[in-house]
Amino acid sequence: MNIGIFDISFVEIGLVAGLVAAFIYEIYFYIRYIRLRRGGKPGEDKQSPRNAQPPVSVIVCARNEGYNLQAYIQSLLTQDYPEYEVIIVNDGSEDNTQAVIDDYVISDPRVRTTFVPKGARVKSTKKLGLTLAIKAAKYDFILLTDADCRPESRSWISAVMDGFHANQREIAIVLGFGAYFNEPTLLNGVIQYETLFNGLHYLGAAVAGKTYMGVGRNLAYRKSAFFEHGGFSDQMTEFAGDDDLLVNRIATKTNTAVVTSPESITWSVPKRTWKSWWQQKRRHLSVSHAYRPATKRHLLREPLARALFYGIIIALFVLGEPLSLCVAFGLLIVRLLVQCNILNSAAKRLGLPAIGLELLWYDICLPVVTLVAMCGKKRSKW
Fold first, then answer.
1. Cβ(204)–Cβ(33) under 8 Å?
2. Does 153 have pLDDT greater than 70?
3. How far apart are CA 49 and CA 30, in angstroms?
4. Where are the beta strands (DSSP E) in the chain?
5. Higher pLDDT, 8 or 381
6. pLDDT band at 321 (very low <50, low <70, confident <90, very high)
């Protein structure tokens, strides 16, 4: 059989053209993260000498986190930073959280506390707690993390605060990367891949001037910016979104900076059961409907291009024409090589485990899992 152009049907030509278009977009999607994996744009991670270190209010929300507070809060109190306070919010805890907080308040004058009144008639008590803490904060710079988070280094506050001096711009928001502790389980492998992929996605978008979200495990903003934009006033009907919806609303092309240096990373305790991971995933996705229309379009492009890419490959394999199969197989291999190179370079920089042959499984199955999770109803406040 000849393999000239006239031996290929119009259907195959259309499929190959669609495959090439999806391939080009997918390659662009990953290549634009090269700047981020190497430290971002010039000035993004190496902002200026650390001679401008304004005071900072570090805020931690805690709900039944007595154990984690005992394990991780000390890492916040040993930061190499001249002036800061730590405000711990007790969000209706029923364990020993308040007793642990009281011990820290007594032993360290930098620790302050507030609480969400029991029986508060709001959908998101966490947002109420954060609002109370931000109002009580002494300083204009607010740095958020979770009770189960441990900074990578004693320079964490300094590294994040460097973001506010990026490129001599007036920065209102600084986005950091929140990693999860590595564990030898299948679930942890899924968590590590998702965390890396999502991190590159939202941090890369911010570097490109298209900020759409941040994560509360490692996020900083100005108190003045928070109140100028109404805080959480328009989000109190949503269980989640205390981080991504806020950033989605107040971020602009010029007021957001990214920090990805190793010392700027935080590490969190991962979910250890599939059920708890699934509930967390559904909670995070439950607020996606409240994103700006431009953000929704931005978030849909890559999954649609990926679905088109794999869908056309399947169709070409069904048709079974040699030339089309060679093109499909070649593009698939090139795409996987580009993915592996960029993802593993970023993983090495961020201290995450390398990704191997399981990449193909993650790449195909996790978007389907995400789609199913988005169809679920939101339940949990946390």
1. yes
2. yes
3. 31
4. 56-62, 84-90, 111-115, 141-146, 149-151, 173-175, 178-180, 219-222, 256-258, 266-268
5. 8
6. confident
